[in-house]
Amino acid sequence: MFYHFIKMNVMSWLACFCVCISTLQAEQKFKDGKTGVSLRAPDGWVEQTPADFGFVILPHADEKSKKLRIHSLTIKAGTPAEAIVTNFEKTNAARIKGGHAAERLLESSPVITDSGIKGHKILLAVGDAPPYLARYYFQKPDQTFFCTCVYFYGDNGFLKLAEDSILKTLMLEQD
Fold it and tell me: CA dist 173 to 10, 33, 75, 112, 117, Å?
C-alpha cells in the first residue's frame, strides 16, 4: 500500500514536471526596444514587420485583425488613472475627427504582472457592439507610460492567451 502511494505521488510529480517543461518550450520571447519591455507569447506567434504603430505580435502570420500591440504613451499624467482618462479622451477625439464612432469604456480593473509591474486594464467597445479591445496601462520607474493592447474582437480564447502572456511574462528590460 505504501509503495503504491509513493509510486502515485512520483508519477503525479513527473506528469506536472513534463507539463511545465512543455509549456516553457512552447513559448518564445518578444522584446520591444522602444518601450524597453519584453514578454513571452505562445509558440508560432510572430512579430508584424513593419508594424503600422507600436510593436505588434500576431497569433500567426496570416492574421489580419487579432493582435497584441505594445506602445509608449506621450502622456504627461502623474498617475495611471490620469493616463487612462487622458488617453481615452485623446483616442476618442481622433476617432470622431476621423469619422469613426467613439469607444465606450465597459470595465476597468487594476492588474499586476508576475514580475511586479502594476497597471490597469480597461475593456472597450464601439457603440452597441460587444467588446473588441483590452488595454493594459503600465507606468515605468521613470514615470513614463506604455500600453499593451489586445485586439480580440469577441474571441475570448485569444484574449485569455494574450492576457496570460502579459500578466505572467511581461518584464521591464534592463539597459
Answer: 38, 9, 21, 17, 12
